[in-house]
């Protein structure tokens, strides 16, 4: 299955249209006769609604095996529903698990359970899925983009230079010695890029 839409591209006016979304299983709620699978993509959330009496049994079995944060692709029909987030829900015709998440998760990405900073930094790939963390990087992106566009419009050229320091500093960095104007300097290299 190939994504046809991000969550923000789907509207209630698309009622009856078939779409495919891809993202993470953000939350799964089984209420007996109805199951809700909330899928999160980079733009937002989509509520996938499975009515147990009306849904294909194979699709229902796939949902039962999904763990939170598993990567899924969902194809279904858009149904206008005022009570649902964004004013619509997706009634699935097919669900595919693209990557199953291991459980238990190292941290909660829904925002219901807070995590210490140490935990968040240790599992940064999970922390980056939190909407608050994403918002910080989206704002940073827009600010840097605006600055670049402003400076570019005035004829500035952006360059990226290596960091040259007078002496080796602490922090696990490795250095390449340089001799510039008869002065011994060091070119820093990040540990992840160093070779042994």
Rg, alpha carbons? 24 Å
H and E order = EEEHEEHHHEEE
Shape: elongated
Q: In this structure, how is the largest beta sheet organized?
A: 5 strands, antiparallel
End-to-end gap: 42 Å
Helix % is: 10-25%
Please state the structural category.
alpha+beta
Enumerate how many helices there are, as a single number. 4
Which strand-content bin applies to the residues? 25-35%
Total DSSP E strands: 8
- Strand order in space, largest sheet: 3-2-1-4-5
Show unreliable segments: 191-196
Q: What's the rounded overall pLDDT mean?
A: 86
Care to describe what's here?
- The chain starts with 17 loop residues before the first strand and ends in a 7-residue tail after the last strand.
- It is elongated, with a radius of gyration of 24 Å.
- It has four helices and eight strands.
- The protein is 21% helix and 33% strand.
- The strands form two sheets. Strands 3-2-1-4-5 form a five-stranded antiparallel sheet.
- It has 196 residues and is α+β, with helices and mostly antiparallel strands.
- The model is unreliable at 191-196 (pLDDT under 50).
Keywords:
196 residues; 4 helices; five-stranded antiparallel sheet; three-stranded antiparallel sheet; disordered C terminus; alpha+beta
Topology, pairings included?
Elements lengths: L17 E13 L3 E7 L4 E7 L5 H8 L6 E10 L7 E12 L17 H6 L1 H4 L3 H23 L10 E2 L8 E7 L2 E7 L7
Short overview:
With 196 residues, the protein is α+β, with helices and mostly antiparallel strands. It has helices at residues 57-64, 117-122, 124-127, 131-153; strands at residues 18-30, 34-40, 45-51, 71-80, 88-99, 164-165, 174-180, 183-189.
